[in-house]
Amino acid sequence: MSRLILPATRSQWRFSTRVLVPVGLVSLFLLAFCGLALVQAVRESDAISIERQVETARRAINNSIDRLGRQQKAVAMWDPAVVQLSRATPNWEWVDTWMGEWLHRNFEHDHVFILNARDEPVYAMFHGVRTSASSFHSVQRELQPLIDHLRNPPDGSEHEDDNGPSGRAGRSPEEATGGGRLLEIFARPVAASATKIVPLTDAVRQQPGSEFILVSVRFLDGDFLQELSQRHLLKAPRWSRTDTASADEVALPLTTDLGDPAGYLIWRPELPGSRTLWDLAPAAALTGGAIVLVVGLLIWSLRRSTLELQASEAHAHHLAFHDILTGLPNRALFNDRLDQALARTRRGDKVAVLTLDLDRFKPVNDTLGHQAGDALIREFARRVSGLLRTSDTLARLGGDEFAIVQVGIADRSDVEALCTRILKTVRQPFDLFGHEVFVGTSIGVALAPEAGDERIDLLRKADIALYHAKDEGRDCYRYFTSVLDETVQLRRQIEDDLRAALATGEGLQVFYQPEVASAGQPVIGLEALVRWQHPTRGLIPPEQFIPIAEETGLIMPLSEWVLRQACAASRRWPDLFVAINLSPVQFRASGFAEGVIEIVRDCGADPRRIELEITEGILLDSGERAGDVLHVLREAGFRIALDDFGTGYSSLSYLRQFEIDKIKIDRSFVQPLGRATGTDAAAVFRAIVTLGRALGLTVTAEGVETEEQKRLIAAMGASEMQGFLFSRAVSEDRVAGLLSRLNGRAQADEAWSPFTSPGTIS
Fold first, then answer.
1. Direct distance between the N- and C-terminal alpha carbons of the chain, in angstroms, rounded to an integer
2. Distance of CA 529 to CAs 496, 513, 759, Å?
3. Which of 226, 416, 568, 608 has its CA 20 to 30 A from that of 329?
4. Which residues in the chain come in under a pLDDT of 50?
5. In degrees rounded to 5, what are phi and psi of residue 730?
6. Could you give the strand order of the β-sheet that contains 212-219, starting from the edge strand earlier in sequence?
7. Residue 178 is inside which H or E element, if any?
8. What is the pLDDT, as a whole number, of residue 15?
9. CA pair distance 560, 539, nearest whole angstrom
C-alpha cells in the first residue's frame, strides 16, 4: 500500500476538524463543567450550612422554652416556698428575694407571676421588680390555656401525690409542671411556663388542689437574641413580625403553640461555600489560565505530531493487515478478502480457496537455521505471487502455511492450471545462502459455492483437502470432497470412542504373536499387539486408530495401558521375552524412561525379559536424546529392538551409535524370498543379516508365511522368525495352547495356525 501525501491546506483542514476543534470543544466543555460543578458545590455547601443554622435556631428556641420549666423547679419544688405562701400574710420581701428576683437574676425571666389555688394573682414581678399582682390580667388571656392545662391535664386525671389520698407532698417533676409554650404577648414572641409550687420533702404536707402556681415569661426578642448570637454563632439575629429579610439574610417563621404566627427570626447566614469560592477565586483564575496555556501547548504539540502520524499512518495500516516477513496479507486481511469474494458467489460467481503448506520445511529450518527458513518463506511467497492475477489474494497464515483466494474462475480447469503452475515453480531449487534446497508444496482446494459459502467452513474444508494431499505423498493438490469430510468425522468419532474405551478399558485387549528361533523353532518370545473390539464398528485395525491416538495425544495412556497389561502377563511365561512397541510420541515425552521402569517394577515383571521395539524414525527425530533414553533403559535391563529395519534411512551409523540389541527386518524384504524374481531380494536380505551379525545383533525376520521363506531365512543366518507361518496374534488366554502346539511339533514342516484365513500383522 502506497503512502498518501496530503496537500498542506488539506492537512491543516484535517487537523482543525479532527484535532483543534474537538480539543477546543472538549477544553471549553471541561472548563464549563468544572465551573458549573464548582458553583453547584458552593450552592449545596451554602444550602447545607443554612439548613443547619435554621435547625440550630429552631433547636435553641425549643431548648429555651424547655429550660424555662426546668429553671422554675429550682424554687417551685421547695419546702420553704410552700410554707411561706401557705401563711395568711406571706413575706413578700422573702418571695422577691428567693423567687422573683432570683429567677430574673439567674435565668433572666422577664415576668414572674404567682397564682393562688383559685388562680388569682397574688404576686407579680417584671424585670426583677415587684409590681401589682393585678398586672397579670393584662396577659391572662394568653397565659390562661397554659394554666388550665396544668390544673386540668388532657387525660382528665387529677394530680395526686405519690402516696395517694394521704396527701403526701412528694410529686414528680412531670406532675408539677404544665410544660413550656411559645406564645405572643404584647406583639412580642415569648417563652412561657407554668409550674405548681409543691414541697420537695415529706416534712411539709400540702392538701391536693391547694397548690400555688408559678408562671414565668421570657421575651425572645431581647437578651435571648444576643445569647443566640454568642452561643450559636448566628450573625446579627433580629425579630420581625413580617418577613423583612434582605437577599443576604435568612428568615425562620415561628408559630405559637396555638397555631398563630409569632413573627420571624432573621439573621445573616454563614455561607462557607461562597466564602471559600471568593477565597479561591484568584487561585482559580490562575489555574484556568494555566489550563488554557497547557491546552494551547498541547494543541501545538499535537499539530507537530500530526505530521508525523500522517507519515506513518499508511505504514501502520499496512503492518496491521500484512505479514512482516513476506509483505503478504495476513490472516485478518485474507479473511476480509475472502468474505468479499464469497459475497459475490451469491450473484453466481465461483471462488476457489487454496491452502498451501511447504513440504520438508522443518528439516531446512532445523539444518540450515531460522535465517534460511525465513529466506525460503520469502522466496516461496515471491514465486507464488508472480503466478497470481491482481484480483487474487495470497496470504501467509503463519509458519509455512499460506492460503489463496482465486476469484473469477470459470471451472475447475482454472484452479488446476494454477495448482500445476505452483507445484512446478516450487519444485525448482531454492538457493539459500549457498545451499541448493529442494522442497515441494501440498495444496488443498475447496470450491465455493460447491463446498459452501461460509468462510470458516471453507477454510476447514480446504485444510482437510490439504491433509489428504499430504497423506497421499505430498507435492500434489487435492480437492475437498464429502468423502474426505466423512473421513474427518470418522476420525473424530474414533478419537472420542477410543478416549472412552481408555477410561473404561472396555473393548481393548492385548494379543500376542510368537517369535521363534530359526534353529529348532521353539517359541522364544511374544510380541504384544493391541486390539480394539468396537461395540458397534467391530474390530478396528491398529493402523486405523494408532495414528489417531498419536495425533491426539491418546497414544500416551494407550501405550501405558498396553505396557502394564504386557508386563503383568509376562509373569505367566518366565522362559519367554515379551516385545512391546514404543511410539515416537512416547519417546519424546519427558521422564519416559523412568516411567517405563516404574511401570515394570509396579507389575513385578523382570526388565531383562522385556524387549522394547522402536522405529528408525525415533532415532532420526530424537537424536542425542534418543541415545540418552536408550542408555537408561538398557542399564535397567531392557533389550532394545529396531523394528521395521530397512524401511527408513537404515543408517549403519545409527546401529553403531545407539545401543541396539536386535534388528527386525521388515516384511517387505521377506515377501519376495522364494519367488523366481526374488534373487535381488535374497541378496539384500543376506547383506542385512551379515551386517547385523557383524555388529553382534540378533536378527529377526518379520512376515514369514511359507516354508520356503523359513528355509531360506534360516540358511542365510537370521536368528529369529515371526509371521503367519507360525501363528497370528492370539489373546492371552490362548497363548498356553499356542505354546504347547508350537513347541510340541515333531516336524519342522508341520506348521500350525489358529486361524484358517490369512491376514495382516500389526
1. 57
2. 21, 8, 14
3. 416
4. 1-8, 156-175, 746-762
5. -125, 160
6. 129-131, 121-126, 111-115, 212-219, 188-197, 177-185
7. strand 177-185
8. 61
9. 21
DSSP state of 428: S
Q: CB atoms < 10 A from the CB of 402, how many? A: 26
Q: Distance (Å, rounded) from C-alpha 63 to C-alpha 59?
A: 6
Which residue's entry shows cell 537424536? 623
* Topology annotation, domain 331-480: Alpha-Beta Plaits (3.30.70)
CA–CA distances in Å: residue 68 to residues 181, 304, 365, 464 = 10, 79, 104, 101
| Cα 378 to Cα 315, 328, 454, distances in angstroms | 20, 10, 30
* Contacts of 614-617 spanning 24+ positions with Cβ under 8 A: 614/582, 614/587, 614/640, 614/641, 614/642, 614/643, 615/584, 615/642, 615/643, 615/644, 615/648, 616/642, 616/644, 616/645, 616/647, 616/648, 616/649, 616/650, 616/651, 616/654, 617/584, 617/648
Contact partners, residue 657, CB within 8 Å, separation at least 6: 627
Per-residue buried b or exposed e for 31-58, using 16+ beta carbons within 10 Å of the residue's own CB: eeeeeeeeeeebeebbeebeeebbeebe
Q: Identify the pLDDT of residue 177.
A: 55
174: which 3 cell numbers?
412531670
Contact 98, 81 (CB under 8 A): yes
Long-range Cβ contact pairs of 538-545 (< 8 A, separation 24 or more): 540/494, 541/760, 541/762, 542/762, 543/762, 544/494, 545/494, 545/498
d(CA 293, CA 572): 94
Which cell numbers hold the place of 632? 537408561
Residues 6 or more apart from 461 whose CB is under 8 A from it? 446, 451, 452, 480, 484, 485
Q: Using CA atoms, how far apart are residues 685 and 510, in angstroms rounded to an integer?
A: 31
Query: How would DSSP label each residue in 645-703?
Result: ETSS---HHHHHHS---EEEE-HHHHTTTTSTT-HHHHHHHHHHHHHHHHTT-EEEE--
Which of 187, 165, 162, 188 lies closest to 175 in space, CA to CA? Answer: 162
514 dihedral zone (left: phi>0; alpha: psi -120 to 50; beta): beta
**Spatial contact of 482 and 371, defined as CB atoms under 8 Å apart:** no
CATH code for the structural domain at 498-743? 3.20.20.450
Coil vs helix vs strand at 598: helix
Helix ranges, 153-271 (H): 173-176, 223-232
Domains in the chain: boundaries: 8-53+273-320, 54-153+170-267, 331-480, 498-743
Which one-letter amino acid corresponds to residue 320? A
pLDDT of 250-273, one tens digit each?
A: 888 877 777 777 778 888 787 776
Give dist(CA 339, CA 350) in Å, integer. 13
704, 513 Cβ separation under 8 angstroms: no
- CATH code linked to domain 54-153+170-267: 3.30.450.220
DSSP E strands in 535-572: the ranges are 538-540
- According to DSSP, the β-strands at 698-701 and 662-665 are parallel
| C-alpha cell, 126 | 417584671
Burial class for 141, CB neighbours closer than 10 Å (0-12, 13-18, 19+):
exposed
C-alpha–C-alpha distance, residues 462 and 468, integer Å? 10
Q: Kindly report the number of other CB atoms within 10 A of residue 90's CB atom.
A: 17
